[in-house]
Amino acid sequence: xxxxxxxxxxxxxxxxxxxxxxxxxxxxxxxxxxxxxxxxxxxxxxxxxxxxxxxxxxxxxxxxxxxxxx
Amino acid sequence: xxxxxxxxxxxxxxxxxxxxxxxxxxxxxxxxxxxxxxxxxxxxxxxxxxxxxxxxxxxxxxxxxxxxxxxxxxxxxxxxxxxxxxxxxxxxxxxxxxxxxxxxxxxxxxxxxxxxxxxxxxxxxxxxxxxxxxxxxxxxxxxxxxxxxxxxxxxxxxxxxxxxxxxxxxxxxxxxxxxxxxxxxxxxxxxxxxxxxxxxxxxxxxxxxxxxxxxxxxxxxxxxxxxxxxxxxxxxxxxxxxxxxxxxxxxxxxxxxxxxxxxxxxxxxxxxxxxxxxxxxxxxxxxxxxxxxxxxxxxxxxxxxxxxxxxxxxxxxxxxxxxxxxxxxxxxxxxxxxxxxxxxxxxxxxxxxxxx
Lengths: 70, 356
Prior knowledge:
Number of strands of chain A: 4
Helix content of chain A: 25-40%
Shape of chain A: globular
CATH class of chain A: Alpha Beta
Number of helices of chain A: 2
Strand order of the largest sheet of chain B: 1-2
CATH superfamily of chain A: TusA-like domain
Number of strands of chain B: 3
Oligomer: heterodimer
CATH architecture of chain A: 2-Layer Sandwich
Helix content of chain B: 55-70%
Largest interface: A-B, 30 and 35 residues
Largest sheet of chain B: 2 strands, antiparallel
Structural class of chain B: mainly alpha
CATH topology of chain A: Translation Initiation Factor IF3
Strand content of chain A: 35-45%
Number of domains of chain A: 1
Distance between the termini of chain B: 39 Å
Number of helices of chain B: 14
């Protein structure tokens, strides 16, 4: 299952907590954040779980796609 | 590269703090996001304690250093609009708690590095407050979404940096609207230039590393990442070595500079800071840094911190070397109840999921 989350504008560390929650019952989660700190925290989390993560930036927003290894 | 940044940041904060004490600041008082703001509140006449009035340039340097590096890195993006009123209240509560302990979490570490074991008690409370705050976040607590200002509205993002600059100039010229303590802790300070330069450096590094003690503990709890905690580790070591070198180190609970040994209130003072900081999205230091990078929500939190200093001293609720009086004890309990009420009340459901 894939989830797409809009986490723009939420205070630290809510974007991280929501991403973590979403990954509990989804195999792929795509999140949008608008703070570099939120992006970095989410990538650190993905790394720590050895999930695949890709991100791109556009117009001050970051889109991160995280996939659990199958 | 990462280790280099950790070490430089740790040395600027840790050794810098000790150098500031050597140059004139009170003991274990090189940097403190709460007490220094309290002194600024005194200088501005927000409270009337004659011994606690000085525009501490270190804190203004935090804001300006963060502003300068965010601006030159292209990451200065004014934003705000997520419940500034609640952030103001949380800021006030953070400082009320911090002034019972007599320090923000950063000063807690600096105090410990000077041998003041009361710092350990306070930091234990801080960790407890963060755990409690994270439980609220997991249960849906949020302050809504902030948004990035567009067009001319962007100018509000400069307010914190401009205010800090005005205060630096006013302090340097002894402007008439400021009050300066003639005696007591407020009269003890390093030369303005040194305080400002170290504050600027520290602020820029704190911005670059996203330094935040609540963030560091959170990263460790949630993702086992120790990057931010390593910075605090180096701060501790650098301050510890500096204190040994200058002969400031004194191990124990009793007779520590600007401290008391009422353990329960040291614990719950910083517990309140940890809880309010988690609900506000960052510890006192981090709020200053975010205010510098154009976050007006954080600026309201900092304004709340100034007001909190006024409330704390106006109600005679701050701790002192003599301990914490009844007013301070009531203030901590009331502060905890208000913060818990905020945590329970603000759980507006926001639509996060757009598909799937």
